[in-house]
Known about the structure:
Strand order of the largest sheet: 1-4-3-2
Largest sheet: 4 strands, antiparallel
Amino acid sequence: MKIEEIKAKYDDLTFEEVEPSEDWAEDPVGYCFVIEANLHQKFGRATVMVDDLPRVAYSGSTVGIRKMLVDWAVSRDHLAYLAYELGRAEMAIRHGLPFMQE
């Protein structure tokens, strides 16, 4: 899925390109997601890391982020892990508890 497609389809999420680059392209070497919970502003954040460098971040409801990640075409195991972490982030946001991705 292309970034422009994700941005258009999930307009309820805030899109931020980290360290903008005109020639941004998905890297075949590998990528991962870092999940965060912003307790004070009550939203979650998923940052796409490519080769250990942050590239794109999505902020918004943890449910919206999960829906976006389903379309990202990650493996089922990775998706299950991300859904678990987003659930933990949501509970931290609701109850004002500290959150750290496992």
